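Submission sheet (multi-component)
Chains listed below:
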Amino acid sequence: LSHSFSTTLKAPSPESRKKVAIIGGGLSGLACAKYLADAGHQPVVYEARDVLGGKVSAWQDADGDWIETGLHIFFGAYPNMMNLFAELDIHDRLQWKVHKMIFAMQELPGEFTTFDFIPGIPAPFNFGLAILMNQKMLTLPEKIQTAPPLLPMLVRGQDFIDEQDELSVLDFMRKYGMPERINEEVFISMAKALDFIDPDKLSMTVVLTAMNRFLNEDNGLQMAFLDGNQPDRLCAPMVEHIQARGGQVNLNSPVQEIVTREDGSVDYLLMRSGEKVVADEYVSAMPVDIVKRMLPEKWQTMPYFRQFDELEGIPVINLHMWFDRKLKAVDHLCFSRSPLLSVYADMSVTCKEYYDESASMLELVFAPCSPLAGGNVNWIAKTDEEIIDATMGELARLFPTEIAADPTWPATKNQGPNGEAKLRKYAVVKVPRSVYAAIPGRNKYRPSQTTPIDNFTLAGDWTSQKFLGSMEGAVLGGKLAAEVLARKAANLPAPELANKPVRDEIVQKAQTHV
Ligand code: FAD
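Outcome: structure written.
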């Protein structure tokens, strides 16, 4: 269910109206500003770049084609995001796809298999039925062996899920005697789609969290594509909403330093331009790796901030490949189940703004792309040409009659020897630090939105909330930060969800920090 503000927070007196400076114009910073503006406050967002959206940002190349930071999918089980679309009155911008999941067959190039969700069957039975009906990926004994270890997730819920955070997906499978093939058939693609890393690195909590959210709602796993680029189609309506209520959103406004007073509270933000920004309250909606570098000296020994050391962003690469013809692609997301790729989609079919009747544009997520995430090649350091050539090899398996795998025909320069599709153009977007790496044992260090600093609150997809590092997590993190501030202005305590004690081991570590 969507997290909602209490109605008592909506109308502060003019004296209790706060000016809130928010650092970062990604989804979390914008969501925070939107909910603060709704509650009658005056948010001012400072975004470093010339484009909004952070990890959902996009820009046009010289031909006018859109380049996106990431291929993004919205799920039915994103209640806060769905509410946001409804509140902005833009829900018709989500292009919902048929409720199913499509996986490439590993042994059969060019063939796919689906998990189909039958309309009218409630969750979690629709999920169970979809698994039972699929005959191609798992045998019946494998399906039967898989269910018991996952049942406590449904019965005990979040407690069981949190307890599994010390185990990787592979550790969990071995501990509970799940067949190894489940890993090859399902978990590798799931892990790469959820956090861009392999199952031997990914915390089991991530998989269980996702499954739990998806299994609780009838349409939880149904997927939607936005009907165009995110800055225009999602961020711009948020900005209009914020501005219409007296807030501001500034681009090209990098914050250089958070300057503190003697007591450690924030005095002002020093902008790279030299300007000083003074507000009643300050929010960081920056990614963890950047906040770590910007921590003021006075905060360095505080246990709350030392939690951040335990978290870091994972690299991922997003690819766009324009072909000279229409490939046989479906109007949906596909799990490639190939070593270097995660999910992909033909955006010329799936997304209204990118529709093209005569030629395909594949958008693909390349993962894992560093040894931290799995494998042993540091792809993030390779050239664009090397990445595209390796991808073409994998695409040849997904499109065996349409894309050539012949290594004597470097894919980046030529077309295959038998008249296969020619790659017209490509764009490679490297994100060296994307969502926080959800490796085992990290969840407990995700910080609360409330901080020990009186006038400083934290937002971002990596802060503590029940969703993963995702668009939904970013929106919820921003909304919780806004609620902390709105309740404070109304002399109410912070919501319980936005409070979380720091672990003892971090308290001890902070004492020895120099
Ligand atoms: P960010 O988007 O990182 O925003 C932080 C902002 O802070 C940035 O705009 C940055 O420029 C700004 N900033 C940083 N430093 C400063 C400074 N000093 N001064 C001012 N501004 C600053 N999620 C899904 O739900 N579904 C998906 O299918 C999905 N696919 C993805 C695919 C890829 C390739 C990637 C990279 C991510 C994907 N995600 C997906 C994750 C999702 O994009 C993120 O979880 C979410 O967008 C993070 O939002 P955020 O606001 O917390 O952080």
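Remark: The pocket of flavin-adenine dinucleotide is lined by residues 23-29, 46-49, 54-56, 69-73, 254-255, 285-287, 290, 316, 318, 365, 431, 434-435, 460-461, 469-474 (CB under 6 Å).
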